[in-house]
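Deliverable D2.4 — example input (structure tokens):
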């Protein structure tokens, strides 16, 4: 994938996140440019519902803008801290999923209760500070809590998701909130039943490019309706 193609994919991901209700007027998606210390991310003032390639800027791993119009998001350190700590991560999303956030506020752990929730079998930790992650120190603190997890909840604020591609980070973001929605509903009527070990073992089978493309293409089509 060329840098221009990656920029286009990041822009599409931002629009998809907004259309799916995972972000609104704020939130951001980034991608690491392979074999470099640079990332692509939507700029701070971009209108998330209509982000284009021109709204994607290039920054370094200190969060300093290198190329593009507009300034980096104030919480760019969410992204830079993860990329520094986890070389396998190629895409990061900071989202505001409403049900996931509500469960975090209530102190209810995110446990897998639907089939695709198996991708979170290792758990979703909670970073216990609702303030903006707008300094390198806060980014490092959040990343330390996140560890090797696919996602971390920022209590009373939102969540951060990391993956090895932009499409994978969208896939994980969708199912983080879908699983949370079903978990929330189950809490309202009884005791949620967590997936059994043999069901959780299916997680690696779900996590593959065919599924990423299937979900991505479905929501791209819905967005254009």
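Example output (designed residues):
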């Amino acid at each position: 994938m060329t840098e221009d193609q990656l920029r286009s994919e990041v822009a599409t991901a931002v629009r998809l996140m907004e259309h799916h209700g995972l972000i609104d007027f704020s939130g951001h998606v980034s991608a690491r440019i392979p074999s470099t210390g640079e990332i692509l991310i939507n700029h701070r003032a971009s209108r998330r519902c209509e982000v284009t390639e021109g709204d994607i800027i290039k920054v370094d791993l200190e969060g300093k803008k290198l190329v593009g119009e507009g300034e980096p998001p104030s919480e760019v350190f969410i992204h830079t801290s993860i990329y520094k700590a986890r070389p396998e991560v190629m895409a990061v999303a900071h989202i505001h999923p409403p049900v996931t956030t509500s469960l975090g506020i209530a102190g209810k752990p995110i446990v897998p209760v639907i089939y695709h929730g198996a991708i979170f079998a290792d758990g979703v930790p909670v970073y216990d500070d609702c303030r903006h992650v707008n300094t390198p120190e806060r980014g490092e603190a959040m990343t330390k809590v996140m560890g090797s997890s696919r996602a971390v909840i920022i209590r009373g604020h939102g969540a951060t998701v990391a993956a090895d591609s932009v499409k994978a980070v969208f896939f994980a973001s969708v199912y983080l909130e879908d699983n949370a929605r079903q978990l929330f509903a189950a809490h309202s009527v009884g005791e949620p039943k967590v997936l059994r070990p043999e069901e959780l073992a299916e997680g690696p089978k779900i996590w593959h490019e065919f599924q990423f493309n299937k979900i991505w293409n479905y929501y791209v089509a819905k967005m254009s309706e």
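The mean pLDDT is 96.
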